[in-house]
Amino acid sequence: MLEDLHIASIVVSTIRNAPVLMFAALAGLFAERSGVVDIGLEGKILASAFVSAAVAYATQNPWWGVAAAMAVSAAIAMVQAFVSITQKGNQLVAGIAINIAMSGLTFVLAQFFFQQGGRTPDLGDAHFSEIVLPGTAALDSIPFVGWLYGHVIGGHSVLVYLAFILLPLVHWVVFHSRFGLRLRACGENPHAADAAGVSVAKTRYLAMLTAGVLCSFSGSYLAIVQSGFFLRDMSAGAGYLALTALVFGNWRPVHTVLGCLMFALFQAVQIQLEGVDLPVVGRIPGALIQMIPYVVTVVVLAGLMAKSVAPKALGTPFVKSR
Question: Has the keyword Nucleotide-binding been applied to this entry (predicted)?
Answer without folding.
Answer: no
